[in-house]
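Record 1 of the preview.
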Amino acid sequence: MTDPLDPTGEELRRALQGPAPAFDLAGTLPGSVAGRVRSRQRRRQVLSGVVVAAVVAAVAVPLAVTGSDGSASRTTLPASPGTSTPGSTVPNTAPVPTTAPPPPTTLPPSTTTTVPPPVGIACTAFSFPPGQPDVPQSATASFGGVTATWALQTVDTSTGAPPGSQYSATTLTVAFDVEPVSIPVEPAINALSNGVIPWSITASGQQLCVVGFSGGPTAVLVGLFSGGAHCCGTLRAYIVGAPLNSAGIALGPEDAGFQVETVDGIPLVDWPDTSFDYKFSSYAGSGDPIRFATLTAQGFIDVTSQHPAAVTADAANWWSIFQKDPGNGLGILPAWAADECTLGQGDSMRSTLGSLQTQGKLDGTGGSEIHPGGTGAAYVQNLEAALTKAGYCTG
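->
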């Protein structure tokens, strides 16, 4: 039957498939709300056409289904073969074959891998040209992306020290991923003057090192000397990435100095214990037990007991020296005794001292060394007290 008001059906078609309301197309709704409304209206236009086509063709219609977890999933309900859609006189047809889209790719949660700083040592020495000891000097060491330059700018001749040995102005420049930072370097602790005297901190005579400590920070290490006859040295550490100041983290002063080296595969500071110097013999006749330090963000810590093989070798060395010359060995034996304490061998150490006393090997007979700590039984008693005071065999 033809509608007399719409004989061609054009008005009905326009009503079903007409444009979205003008107020939305004009963007009268604010911001993202207008965008969502327009999007939904466009989808309605498309869906109206799809619904009409689905009614006519009786093809499958996608429906949104909510799963048990509340998430929306998309499923397809096909029309049954051999049936017709209610209200339609058009015969049913088979569903149109479709290819299911691939499942979405699920990305694993992002993870951040922390790469520990490298572990190792790089050191360098100043070169003091023969005949030109008063010229400014600089030395540069690099390791693990860190470059450190220690510049000695002005020679200090006011103290009468050997030319080129003291500098009244020094600068340490550290570069690591950022703009280089420059700071002055303080003299050694208890320095006899305001001059800076570089001092060796390696077996090769180098004064500047960049060290990546195992389980700790990367730091720039410099050696300084106070200017005495043979005392004393200061080791200053400047931790990379931490606020820098002229004093750094200081270790010392120490008469025996420091040696940066690799022990059991990791960098350590060999830091001999001078607690027994002069107490049982002269300085030259005194032994210093081995001691190791590592660096943490809080400062240097003693880790000697973590390296028993090195301590055992040190104890064997001091024992051998004593055995070769017991008369001059009373200053040597405390270093052996301290090493034995570190190894947990305090009882056997005391037993050995008792045997040596019985044998008369603690009397200093035949030696030329002085014996400020006494001999015989007095020596044993004073050695026990000195070990306890230095922190050995206290458990």
